[in-house]
Write a structure and sequence with these properties.
Layout (H helix, E strand, L loop, with lengths): L1 H11 L6 H8 L13 H23 L5 H15 L1 H7 L11 H25 L3 H16 L8 H9 L5
Helix pairs in contact: 1-2, 1-5, 3-4, 3-5, 3-6, 4-5, 4-6, 4-7, 6-7
Amino acid sequence: MLEQAHALLDEVGPEAVTLRETARRAGVSATATYRHFRDKEGLLAAVATEGFDQFAERLAASVQGGRPFDEMTRAYVLFALERPGLFRLMFSPLFMSRAAHPDMATAAAKTFAVLNAAASVANSQAGRSPVSAWAEAHGLAHLLLDGMVPLQSREEILNGMFGPPKT
């Protein structure tokens, strides 16, 4: 079910994911979903939890080296572009109900700890607050996702802002 929900997210976005379609794609009855998830929000919270875990791993791996904030921003943006439905879900209004989904809240907190650490480095290097550094990464990701900046120029933009990727 989770695998199919991930696929649906990237195909149609968070709003269009349904328990019925997820069950159909997983080859189970629609009622079988209720053995694992209370409702659609429960399914999406489980998917978002996996997404935050993956995102945290990716961000943590990116901040090794001499330009942690720049590399974290690059990883942040590329994750959003590679997994647009998942990225939008993770930062959707569902996140506001994190108290109802403690596993998602824990995974999100781990992700934000990685972001905060990299943003703190940016703050010490360039006089930016951690929130403004995060806003830069998140804003750039959304500008690219929403088509405000042509995707074909994404490497040019990322390289221009942060230099070439580390090897």
